[in-house]
Automatic annotation (TrEMBL):
<dbReference type="Pfam" id="PF22613">
    <property type="entry name" value="Transketolase_C_1"/>
</dbReference>
<dbReference type="Pfam" id="PF02779">
    <property type="entry name" value="Transket_pyr"/>
</dbReference>
<dbReference type="InterPro" id="IPR055152">
    <property type="entry name" value="Transketolase-like_C_2"/>
</dbReference>
<keyword id="KW-0460">Magnesium</keyword>
<dbReference type="InterPro" id="IPR005475">
    <property type="entry name" value="Transketolase-like_Pyr-bd"/>
</dbReference>
<feature type="domain" description="Transketolase-like pyrimidine-binding">
    <location>
        <begin position="3"/>
        <end position="81"/>
    </location>
</feature>
<feature type="domain" description="Transketolase-like C-terminal">
    <location>
        <begin position="97"/>
        <end position="201"/>
    </location>
</feature>
<dbReference type="InterPro" id="IPR033247">
    <property type="entry name" value="Transketolase_fam"/>
</dbReference>
<protein>
    <recommendedName>
        <fullName>Transketolase-like pyrimidine-binding domain-containing protein</fullName>
    </recommendedName>
</protein>
<keyword id="KW-0479">Metal-binding</keyword>
<dbReference type="InterPro" id="IPR009014">
    <property type="entry name" value="Transketo_C/PFOR_II"/>
</dbReference>
<dbReference type="InterPro" id="IPR029061">
    <property type="entry name" value="THDP-binding"/>
</dbReference>
């Protein structure tokens, strides 16, 4: 079968072990930090990294309606909360604002998260807001469905956070922004220890945001 034919089938792939969050469950082969970037590079493919039940339902809803487009749902296995601001409908935009204390579509900084790291972005936003800054938090669940409206061109202070390769994020955060991710192989340890070791933390997001303000 031709590769182009495979890319036109409405198949839904559901992935687990999306990154380092379950590092104590096995060797570094369970921590595929490069896979998300490679899936995003595939033509005519929807790559979803939802953060909770709302976004997972939204991703599945879109996947079953696009019969000529394969879809990949990369899910985590940690116990994480349902986040305020997420929605089934928001997934249709690809990048969805889940919180924003600014006015006039002009926040001081935009924090962009996916999957299990969206919670970290929301926690970092709370820290930054307490210091008098305005912050927009964006769930970037699907690049292929992304609409520019959630990232106003006038706001160059942008920080992305994803427990995976930072490859490709430059086109999202722009020339002045920063990306927090993992550009090396993982390790076998408990999730909190690995997150701290690789800098996937609230503190790292806050520091990156402050450096841009």
């Amino acid at each position: 079968m031709r590769i182009s034919s495979l890319s036109e089938a409405g198949v839904i792939y559901v992935m687990t072990h999306d990154s380092i969050g379950l590092g104590e469950d096995g060797p570094t082969t369970h921590q595929p930090i490069e896979h998300i970037a490679s899936f995003r590079a595939m033509p005519n493919t929807l790559m979803f990294r939802p953060t909770d039940g709302n976004e997972t339902a939204g991703a599945y809803k879109i996947s079953v309606t696009k019969r000529k487009t394969p879809a990949i749902l990369a899910l985590y296995r940690q116990n994480l909360p349902q986040l305020p601001g997420t929605s089934i409908e928001g997934v249709e935009k690809g990048g969805n604002t889940i919180s924003d204390n600014s006015s006039g579509n002009n926040p001081d900084v935009i924090l962009i998260g996916t999957g299990s790291e969206l919670e970290i972005a929301t926690q970092a936003a709370e820290v930054i807001m307490k210091e008098g800054k305005t912050v927009r938090v964006v769930s970037f669940v699907c690049w292929e469905l992304f609409e520019e409206s959630v990232l106003p061109s006038g706001v160059s202070a942008r920080v992305s956070i994803e427990a995976a390769s930072t490859f490709g994020w430059g086109k999202i955060y722009g020339g002045r922004g920063k990306s927090i991710g993992i550009n090396s192989f993982g390790a076998s340890a408990a999730a909190p220890l690995l997150s701290k070791e690789f800098g996937i933390t609230v503190e790292a997001v806050v520091d990156a945001a402050k450096s841009l303000l």
